[in-house]
Design goal:
Rossmann fold; 6-stranded mixed beta sheet; alpha/beta; 4-stranded antiparallel beta sheet; 10 helices
Length: about 270
């Protein structure tokens, strides 16, 4: 398609009358073949921005578009065929195997009458292999670790075979290997299948290594947006996060940061 797959324009969200807005005039767009990471401190508005894009919160002002159409004009099944979503928190609500949980990603394609077909089974198998959960196929989801359950949820989104992925803290509970594998998988899907991906992450270094653009949010506003090396500026980050940081550049040119220790005071104990 031409133009952005997602677009948020001048979006303002206020969860209750008289309180400060959780989003205040936020705008950004994500095109096919692009990964954009929303970063910022707790309460910055990252998850609210995702919810606004998915039509899950009412906009006080502004617009949320998917493929150039207002998100409110999409049916939930039609939107689910286009966008795979991994939310920040989700607990299994009934006993189900891993394979059955991943297969739920095919439901938007089945409609009212179509039965589960070979193409659907193949999509489930591919998704489980991509998310490294094929060996867990027969396990009950209630027996999984937090990281295993997270990967199953990613597999369910991939089974939808969407044109876009929206992931809110997808590396929560994942170990080092699976963090890297997940971000490398997202980067591969974006590059080879021209998916549009939006990732909320507190892992600034992972976001800087794999995202094409960062959107840095603070107190419901966009502080900076652009290539990681332009957004990750020492003074800006210290102002947003309220903590001293230092930056270094990897051999591949990627900017990485690490938090510094605050200056010791005479009363500090070691």
């Amino acid at each position: 398609m031409d133009g952005p797959l997602f677009e948020l324009t001048d979006a303002t969200v206020r969860y209750a009358p008289g309180v400060a807005p959780s989003l205040n005039g936020v705008g950004f767009a994500v095109a096919p073949g692009e990964c954009v990471a929303l970063v910022g401190p707790n309460g910055a508005g990252k998850t609210t921005a995702l919810r606004a894009l998915l039509g899950l919160v009412r906009l006080e002002r502004g617009a949320a578009l998917v493929q150039g159409r207002p998100v409110a004009s999409w049916t939930r099944d039609a939107l689910a065929r286009e966008v795979g979503v991994v939310v920040q928190r989700e607990e299994p609500v009934f006993p189900i195997t891993v394979e059955a949980a991943v297969a739920m990603g095919r439901y938007p394609h089945l409609g009212r009458w179509r039965l589960f077909a070979r193409a659907d089974r193949d999509a489930v198998d591919r998704a489980m292999a991509l998310a490294d959960v094929a060996a867990l196929r027969e396990r009950w989801v209630g027996t999984l670790s937090g990281g295993e359950w997270q990967r199953v949820r990613v597999a369910r989104a991939l089974a939808q075979e969407p044109h876009a992925l929206v992931l809110d803290e997808p590396t929560a509970s994942l170990d080092l290997r699976h963090e890297m594998e997940l971000f490398e998988l997202i980067a591969t899907l974006v590059r080879e299948r021209r998916l549009a991906a939006i990732v909320v992450s507190h892992h600034l270094n992972l976001a800087a290594r794999f995202a094409d653009r960062l959107v840095l949010l603070h107190q419901g506003r966009v502080v900076a947006t652009g290539a990681p090396e332009g957004v990750l500026e020492t003074g800006r980050l210290q102002g947003v996060f309220g903590w001293p940081v230092a930056l270094q550049r990897l051999p591949d040119g990627t900017v990485q940061l690490y938090p510094e220790r605050r200056a010791a005071t005479p009363g500090d104990r070691r």
